[in-house]
Amino acid sequence: MEKKKLITILLIAGVYLLTSAASYTFFANAKGGGTLTEAPDAKRQKNEFGQIVFDEGPKTESCPLNGTMYSKAQKGWWEKHRPLGVMIENHEEARPQSGLSFADVIYEAVAEGGITRFLAVYYCQDAGIVGPIRSARTYFLDFISEYGANPLYAHVGGANTPGPANALGQIEDYGWGGYNDLNQFSIGYPTFRRDESRMGREVATEHTMYSTTSKLWDVGRKRKLTSKDEDGQEWNEEFVAYSFKDDAALAKRGSAKSMYMEFWEGYKAFSVDWTYNKENNIYLRKNGGVAHNDKNTGKQITAKNVVVLYMDESAANDGYEGNAHRLYGTKGTGEAVLFQDGQEIEAIWKKSGREARLVVTANGKEVKFNKGLIWFEILPTGSPLEVN
């Protein structure tokens, strides 16, 4: 009897050691930010922050989200998944964020207390590490809903007080829960993981949640949400793409050199400057008066198009502490200003419903964006905008 007990104990110990070793190997490999399912490809590799990068080749393929030209190999890669929206915070302790430079489109608006938050939409580029990731807000749901059928949406919890700002309740109402909704509370490690040392300084725990775009797309694959859903429907069957154009010739570029905005008056830590570089035809971003860099690259964030959308802002009055939850009038129409090619262009935005594409028009015609990152700044109606 004692001998059998000893054998049983030894077997259990052996299984434990084997599974521990396997788990260690799995998590160690996952920690680097790599995809968990994709096989290696000779035309692509990963860099130091887990981003899939492609061998240089003729750039003949247009990204449907922002018009940027890429190789056929890269198009073959992006056509195997669907758009992914990630909630990335902008608290001072969250800076510099990881992966913003590689989004195709970004929306920025106040989350609460004058602190802005980003919805970064990824499709044509892998960003590697992204974060810090924070909670869902109802108006960002309206924006990500534009990206075809069941876009992936990654966040850490969300506003859930009953009322008009109840983002988590709305996610369930839309039929996204446990499907295209990628809530850290229900997915956990290793897709999401805390990295207390990433900033190189001590920050509060809520500013330490990261993932990678590859791991998030992997969750979509496991849920049978690739470019198609389980019924064979392509995500983009009803997606409305913007129109794009080439950069203006150097001689035709304007002299609107910079713009400055405050989302809430006096909250200068979250103010934004965009400075125009005429030679490269890009806008360089400052946040709180200093260059806004991407942690992954160490380089300043730039955009090809900056669009200011004026929307009515109000408190949700949902009983949440300090009445902090915000609402924005994302549907309907309002004033806008487009910055591209060094030009300041007065415009109008329109959005007829949650899933309808937000359209920007100028002089009665839909605008064409320059090929590259489109950054939407959502300002409360009446907010000042300084242009030099």
Structure description:
The model is unreliable at 1-42 (pLDDT under 50). The protein is globular and about 50 Å long. A hairpin with a 2-residue loop joins β16 and β17. It has two domains: 59-100 and 122-222, YerB-like fold; 243-387, YerB-like (YerB-like fold), CATH 3.50.90. It contains six helices and 28 strands. It has 388 residues and is of the alpha+beta class. It is 17% helix and 31% strand.
> Strand-residue fraction?
25-35%
Low-confidence stretches: 1-42
Structural class: alpha+beta
- In CATH, the homologous superfamily of the largest domain goes by the name YerB-like
Write down the CATH class of the largest domain: Alpha Beta
Mean pLDDT across all residues, rounded? 89
Instruction: Report the CATH architecture of the largest domain.
Output: 3-Layer(bba) Sandwich
DSSP strand tally: 28
In short:
By secondary structure, this protein is an alpha+beta fold.
Keywords:
single chain; disordered N terminus; YerB-like fold; alpha+beta; 6 helices; 2 domains; six-stranded antiparallel β-sheet; 388 residues; eleven-stranded mixed β-sheet
Topology:
Blueprint lengths: L1 H30 L12 E3 L5 E3 L6 E2 L6 E2 L1 H7 L5 E6 L15 E8 L2 E8 L6 E2 L7 H7 L7 E4 L11 H7 L7 E3 H4 L5 E2 L14 E4 H10 L20 E3 L12 E4 L10 E6 L4 E6 L2 E2 L10 E2 L1 E7 L1 E3 L10 E3 L3 E9 L2 E9 L7 E4 L2 E2 L1 E3 L3 E7 L4 E3 L1
Parallel strand pairs: 5-9, 6-27, 9-10, 13-26, 19-27
Antiparallel strand pairs: 1-2, 3-4, 5-7, 6-7, 8-12, 11-12, 14-15, 14-28, 15-16, 16-17, 16-18, 19-22, 20-21, 22-23, 23-24, 24-25
